[in-house]
Amino acid sequence: MLAVLKAGSAYLPLPSTVPADRMRAMAERAGAALLVTDRPHELTGLTVLAPEEGEAAEPPRADPHPDQAAYVMFTSGSTGVPKAVVLTHRNAAGFVRDRLWRAGGTVLMHSATGFDASVHEIWTPLLTGGTVVVAPDGVLDDAGLARAVAESGVDRVWLTSGLFAALAEDPECFAGVREILTGGDVVPPAAVARLLDRHPGLTVRALYGPTETTTCSSRFSMSAGQDVPGRVPIGAPMDNTRLYVLDERLQPVPAGVPGELYIAGSGVSRGYAGRPDLTAERFTADPWGPAGGRMYRTGDITRWRADGTLDFVGRADAQVKIRGFRVEPAEVESSLTALAEIGQAFVTAHEDHGGERRLVAYLVPEDAAPDLAAVRDHVAATLPD
């Protein structure tokens, strides 16, 4: 990634866990021309470059413009089709300039590079005088976190809210951590209170933000000696960010009244590669910002609290978040009903007694097709049990 940016190009992280055809579609959508890999791969149509050890005879002297693309991240959208979000050097620099990251710090990098949390884990420490500690392969558990903290001096960790809740069951694994960043879904207040009680010097920050606005757009900080709210808000705007809660006429709503959240500022991305129609649908002119400014329509319903922070109310569409990833239940339903033995499918998100959210599918065989509305009512009535 460092080499790609230094050469004046943009990078697209391809997750090795997805099928080759989906990986190929991602590369085509993003307009990728070069594949950098250290192993043989099934992708065709791309020039393959194998990294070699040693230094180039003449290092590149690129001087990219702030509005030049720096990287591309994929996210699902309202159509259920993954979309390539093009983010610029200006977007990333605006995020890194936030006052939260001025202390540098030693940050654990464990997120997949195709997940936008990696933007924080890699670039904020490197551009603020900090250190990146690369976690071993595999899922991060309490023992792995404790080892990284003890052996490498990790003092800042990003965790999805689901992983945060799981690791908080063993508070000792956070001994020595100065700061925990979490978000992507509802942050469990009981887990926050448990950790702050055990580690008084710790700060837990709930972060919120879609990929389209560069990783994070708002924050809410909690420290020892403060009451942890029963419902953790998504907080106040990050630096260089403006948050608007608007009604259907794009007019600001009063505090306490739900409305759709729009985000403006330096983090608003260029839009979707190859999809000018969807870009125009989700990115619109910012009537309250500088001339030429744009704002992003999140699809999230929020409301202002009296203290100037935002509460998350719900989604304006059917999208749900599972472990920090945006998921389209309709896309899952479509894949299930494509199977010959499945007649109908209803997919929804359900939170179990441990607070973990997961997808639940109710499947109807091909030879028995009751009314789908009845299926939905049945699922809604039985899931709480």
Strand content: 25-35%
Distance from first to last alpha carbon? 47 Å
CA radius of gyration is: 22 Å
Class per helix and strand makeup: alpha+beta
What is the count of helical runs?
10
Mean pLDDT: 87
**How many DSSP E strands?**
21
Spatial shape: globular
Residue share in helices?
10-25%
Low-confidence stretches: none
Strand order of the largest sheet: 7-8-9-10-11
Structure, explained:
By secondary structure, the protein is α+β, with helices and mostly antiparallel strands. It is built from 10 helices and 21 strands. The strands form 7 sheets. Strands 7-8-9-10-11 form a 5-stranded mixed beta sheet. Strands 12, 13, 15, 16 and 17 form a 5-stranded antiparallel beta sheet that branches. Strands 3-4-14 form a 3-stranded antiparallel beta sheet. β20 and β21 form a beta hairpin.
Topology (elements, then pairings):
Layout: H1 2-6, H2 20-30, E1 34-36, E2 47-49, E3 69-75, E4 83-88, H3 89-96, E5 106-109, H4 117-126, E6 131-134, H5 142-152, E7 156-160, H6 161-167, E8 179-183, H7 189-198, E9 203-208, E10 218-223, E11 236-237, E12 241-246, E13 259-265, E14 271-272, H8 276-282, E15 283-285, E16 294-304, E17 310-315, E18 320-322, E19 325-327, H9 329-337, E20 342-351, E21 357-365, H10 372-382
Parallel strand pairs: 1-2, 5-6, 7-8, 8-9
Antiparallel strand pairs: 3-4, 4-14, 9-10, 10-11, 12-13, 13-16, 15-16, 16-17, 18-19, 20-21
